[in-house]
Amino acid sequence: MKEFITVCPRNCYSTCTFRVFTSEGRVVRILPCEGNLATPEGPCIKGLSYLEREYSPSRIIRPLQRQPDGSFVPIGMEEALGIIAGKLLAARERHGPHSVLFYKGSGYSGLSNDIAGNFWRLFGGATTTYGNLCWPAGLEAVRLTLGEVKHNVPWDIAKTRLIILWGKNSAETNVQEMIHIDRARKNGARVVVIDPRRTPTADKADILLRPRPGTDAALALAMAKVIIDRNLVDKEFVSKNVAGFNEFAASLKITPLNAQEITGIPAEAIEEIAVMAAGAGQLTVVAGYGLQRYTNGGQTIRAILSIPVITGMIGRSGCGFNFANLQSYIFDDVKEPLSYYPDKESDKPFRRAISMARFGPDFFALPEPGIEVAWIERGNPVTQLPGSSEVISALQSVPFKVVVEQFMTDTAAMADIILPAKGIFEQADIVGSYWNPYVQYKPAVTDPPGEVMPESEIYWRLAQMVRLTTGGGVDSSVEVSGETQDGDAGLPLQGRGMDHNSVSGIPAPGDYDAWLTERISSTPGFVREELMQHPVIPEQNENPAYADGHFTTPSGKIELWSDSAVKLWGVNPLPSYEPLDDFSESHLPFRLMTPNIASRIHSQFGNLEVVKSVIEAPAWEISVADARRLQLKSGDTVRVFNSRGEVKGRVKVTTRVRSGSIVFPNGIWCAEGGGVNRLIHPAETDMGYGAAFHNTRVDIDKVTP
Amino acid sequence: MRRGFAFDASLCVGCRACSAACLLENGLQAGTRTILTWNDRALPLMRVISLSLACSHCEEPACAEGCPAKAYTVEGSGVVIHHADRCMGCGYCTWRCPYDAPKINEAKGYIEKCHLCYERTEEGIDPACVTACPTGALRFTEQEKFEPVGIGWFPETGIGPSLILKEADSLKGPVIIPSGEADNTEEELPQVGLPERIRKEWSLILFSLLLISASAMMIITGFTDTLIPALIPLLLLTAAMAVSVAHLGVPGKAWRAVINITSSPLSQEIVLTGLLTLIALLNWISPGLIPPGVGAISALLALISVDRVFFAADRSLTLKLHSGQAFFAGIYAVSWFLEPGTLFLVFSMLAAISVVMRYRTAEGPPFVRNLYYFRALVLPVVFMLLYPESPVADGAAVVLFLAGVVADRLLFYCDFNPVNIRNTIKEHFANERER
After folding, report:
1. What CATH number was assigned to the domain covering residues A64-129+346-424+450-508?
2. Which of A45, A519, B237, B367 shows the smallest number of beta carbons within 10 Å?
3. How many CA atoms lie within 13 A of A310 on its CB side?
4. Which of residues 562-601 of A touch B (CB under 8 A)?
5. Residues ≥6 apart with Cβ < 8 Å to B202
6. How far apart are alpha carbons B48 and A301 in whole angstroms?
7. In chain A, where are the structural domains located?
8. Which residues of B fall within a CB distance of 8 Å from A274?
9. Touching check for B11 and chain A: CB below 8 Å?
10. Nearest-Cα residue of chain B relative to residue A28
11. Which residues of B touch A264 (CB under 8 A)?
């Protein structure tokens, strides 16, 4: 058996390093890799399931073409790419490059993804989306306040005295963080979880506060008020590092009693936690992503962040505010959240006219040209975007759709041509993490099965077919306004007398490794040979984060008062509590929460047999009190509905959910009985162009199955 | 050095990576390594503990001792291995193991159980569940001797599980604020229909009823002058043997049932039942060849052997004093036919005492409760029916009496409660909840 060190490239905090062993061209064993101090133990259930996932009989390993009757039949890769090239050329010729929609999700992380952007740039541009479904409100809130988005290394939390996990369910979404939290607990630290749900993480806590969903900012501001009123502020830290403290202190109007009204948490408890936080000596606040998927999400994160700021918990070991740590994203010129912004000039080369959060409405509001061809990769927008019904109609209106996928997802099922996507073991790549500090090399350990080719190669072949040239830009013969040779677009490359070299930014298949090496070598911070062998913390990584007291905000200080917040987002210059927008459905009794669960990364992994055989099937979770009122019991079938539509499913009565909330995990395919996003209003968060998933209100009633 | 698992409950979040890893590595059915949860409904004011459990590779493995087919071996380092090719799928080890380790694979018919990734550990690599655990809650360990686990809800039957449990009783639940949610306790759904034991093991119940009837007849033949055609017990016993073979997961391996006659009560039961069947056959072919006393004594021994199968798995007093025991049921039935009726009176008294002592059975699910009341009522009613001395009443009395015996046998199965960690967790949890 051959052994390799590799990394999981999914959209997940942990970004686990693990060792794989191959035998006869197949990965047969996965073992932990102690070389990553953040993830020294085994991968999660999803990481283990690669043993099935990459070799699953349901994996798509040949291009599939939709037939008139809706079924798919396998076709050759050359034929598939020929058809696609023809459609791309025709669309560009008749309607310009903006008639092509390039949609990418977060299903696979790696430097190789840059090649997609290079291709579409050379193609002359495309229509793309801006914003992000996950975390931008919080990223923007941290950026506005601290300048950069970073935090201490994950294992630093073991040194803290008090951990506040605010809306973060590490046990399910970042399971290795529990190692470090457990170490802290065994060292005597206390753990407070703030979450409307009693999550498995809360089971390990000393205290669980269960506020009403979307009211966290009121709780945080009341805590800040207690800390300030009781004179528990770290004055030295604040006077040296914080801008706008006096304005902030003066703006605090929410007393613990007011907060009790808003959040449902008793005033005494709020005072107690505030005093505990201020007196901890070492406090780490870890904020999750769910609590910023609201129309007040950014302001909520700013409010929560004010607590470690005024208590001087920034820039020290065993302290901090952990939202995201982008220090390993050293290859990116523009980091999140700025990379999510729409381009200022919307016409060149990319037309970023569609907000991810409002995909449906924005799609139908597009100016000319309309979308003729859609190319979707690394994503499953039908399942993941808010407002699925419009998303589905939008995609249905596109005459020709290409989906690059490994499995027959809800989105793949709508494609005209499905191109098989590479597995994680099949191409070398570089992967960063938004939690641990490591840059990691992911080697190619096996060959792709069937006709699978890495996207880099797909793009290179397409580049030959649509005649993108080496020098960048577009071959004159296929200039947007020029004549195209639709007729021979599908011919093999050899017959066309084009050179075999890499098109700028799109390496030829044989040149991919050199391309990657060049990217690695040209980026300072580590020794390339070392990176090829184990995870590396780049030299520029700062730990503790902000220890240098340098904040890249306009004032150079931590900005509780932010002019940028007003200018960019029109929100209060100070952290504030804004009641949620209910989209005129305040009369509906339930707030819908769609959290992530341990067995999936959004819409990935749930289709695997190993996952299905050890994980309980998803259900609509409601509280015991609500179930009693509605005379529902576990196992009953319910209809969950609002003005946007309805979804049916099995109900589960549980003490883990708060009264007034209903919970269904996100990412369950329509084909698996999910499709919960049909109910979600397509709306943006207050900042960062995120999606306000959790604002949605619904009602339920019992139906016969 | 003995090999086993060490588990730190404070690190386990119940993610099930261990179960998945076991499935992927060994192809054994899901649940071979499973997560047991203390407070699985997350009742407020109470802690939640997840316990990842497979096989504890006990020093004196009850599964191996009880296995009639010798499908288990104990390797060096005390690793207990189940060999599917030697297993006939009787499921007796699932009764004998207090830790819920062996599980029947319904699709394949035979038992599957953790083998501590025996070959993998020989290579120097920890078991798949251990290397998979993302928090390091589960470890592989080698010890000279494993100390008793010493936690109330972890059953201690003296068989020496090779397991170290850490932090399993020190965890506290979170203080939940607002505590108004505390009264959010879901009522347990009432159990409807037949109890699981009766539903799943009806063939065993049928076997024992057939065996008890045949034995009673052979005892009556041996000790009284009552004439019972020899063919009847033979047919009953043949049917019993057929039923017992049919209930196996792998009937083709039924012959293995007698291999472990030295230590398996089940092997002994099968051998004695076979012997009894042979005697019944000879009685039919060649009446008088076997003295009736021999047949009667064999029948008594067979009945005792049936009870021993259960007593080995459930040592409770309830079962020891249960009037639904095969031996008791057999001789009680016999006593009906003996003159004078003193013996019948004595046995009826004993049955009544046993039934009264089991009053808690009436708190069970509806089916069990009704069965219990029926059995209790039948005892006096039979006497009342005997009083008028009318043939109709006598006929009704005999039918009711026998129905009562059958009901008691069913109750025996309902009350049969082999020590199992799933139950001890439930019981201890209920106690903690009351506190």
Report:
1. 3.40.50.740
2. A519
3. 32
4. 598-599
5. none
6. 30
7. 64-129+346-424+450-508, 137-326+545-569, 590-703
8. none
9. yes
10. B25
11. 178
A172 has a chain B CB within 8 A of its CB: yes
The per-residue pLDDT for range B125-134, each reduced to its tens digit, is 999 999 999 9
At CB < 8 A and 24+ separation, what contacts does B319-322 make?
B319/B412, B319/B415, B319/B416, B319/B417, B321/B354, B321/B357, B322/B354, B322/B358, B322/B408, B322/B411, B322/B412, B322/B415
Report ipTM (2 d.p.): 0.92
Tokens of A399: 């005459």
Q: What is the CATH number of domain A137-326+545-569?
A: 3.40.228.10
Exposure on the CB side of residue B368, measured as CA atoms within 13 A: 22
Q: What CATH number was assigned to the domain covering residues A590-703?
A: 2.40.40.20
Concatenating the DSSP letter of every residue in A603-669 gives TBSTT-HHHHHHSPPP-EEE-HHHHHHHT--TT-EEEEEETTEEEEEEEEE-TTS-TTEEE--TT--
DSSP sequence for A557-576: SEESS-HHHHHHH---SS--
* B196-415: CATH number: 1.20.1630.10
pTM score: 0.93
Structure tokens at B12: 């386990």
Per-residue DSSP letter, A678: G
- Looking up tokens 């010798």, which residue turns up? B70
Predicted confidence (pLDDT) per residue in A414-453, tens digit: 999 999 999 999 999 999 999 999 999 999 999 999 999 9
Residues of B in contact with A611 (CB under 8 A): 20
Residues of chain A in contact with residue B176, where contact means CB-CB under 8 angstroms, are 198, 208, 210
Q: A642 pairs with which residues across the strands? A: A645
Q: For chain A, which residues score pLDDT lower than 50?
A: 470-500
Interface test with B, best of A19, A53, A204 (most B CBs within 10 A): A204
For residue A75, which amino acid is it? Answer: I
**A203 in B contact zone (CB under 8 Å):** yes
Would the CB atoms of B177 and A207 count as touching at under 8 Å?
A: yes
Provide the H-helix boundaries in B97-167.
118-122, 128-132
**How far from B73 is each of A521, B4, B249, B258, CA to CA, in Å?**
57, 16, 20, 17
Q: Is the domain B2-178 a CATH 3.30.70.20 member?
A: yes
